[in-house]
Amino acid sequence: MTSTTTPATVLMIIGHVMGIALFLNHLRRDLAMARKIFATALLLLTPLVFLLLTNTDRGAAPAFQGLALGGMAASAWASTFVRARVGSGALIVVVACLIALEWPSWQIAWPLFFVGNLVLATGVTGELRSRPD
């Protein structure tokens, strides 16, 4: 990462890595091929799009951020959590981050980011509460 990397970017990467750890701990073992392909596409295409949408003076930070975000979304999609809540929440977060990256002043990015994280978090906590210890 370069000196232009902000503390917020570093915190976002750390948060996504923590999400990856949670979702890999609850990884679905019998994932259908189409879902495997979609998860792999999220993992690989998100950092690529991040790199394509950013200017080159930011160094490798967008690639790391995109990889962490794509990994979080892919592992959420492949987890045992309810995909309609957790998977869709993760996808909304990816879309919000891409919108914020391309149009930083666009007012829809932050509400989408909030809603995506809210859907994701309530899906995880609701599911974990209902599971036996």
Task: Describe what this molecule looks like in 3D.
The mean pLDDT is 89. It is built from five helices and no strands. Helix 2 packs antiparallel against helix 3, helix 3 (61-77) runs antiparallel to helix 4 and helix 4 runs antiparallel to helix 5 (109-130). It has helices at 7-25, 33-53, 61-77, 83-102, 109-130. The N and C termini lie far apart (40 Å). The protein has 133 residues and is mainly α. 32% of the residues are buried.
Characteristics:
133 residues; mainly alpha; 5 helices; 74% helix
Question: Brief overview, please?
Answer:
This protein is an all-alpha fold and 133 residues long. The protein has five helices and no strands.
Share of helical residues: over 70%
Q: What's the count of strands?
A: 0
Elements, N to C (H/E): HHHHH
Give unreliable regions as ranges.
none
Structural class: mainly alpha
So how many helices? 5
Quaternary structure of the protein: single chain
**Rg calculated over all Cα atoms:** 15 Å
- From the spread of the alpha carbons, the general shape counts as globular
Largest sheet: none
Strand content: under 5%
Topology of this structure?
Elements lengths: L6 H19 L7 H21 L7 H17 L5 H20 L6 H22 L3
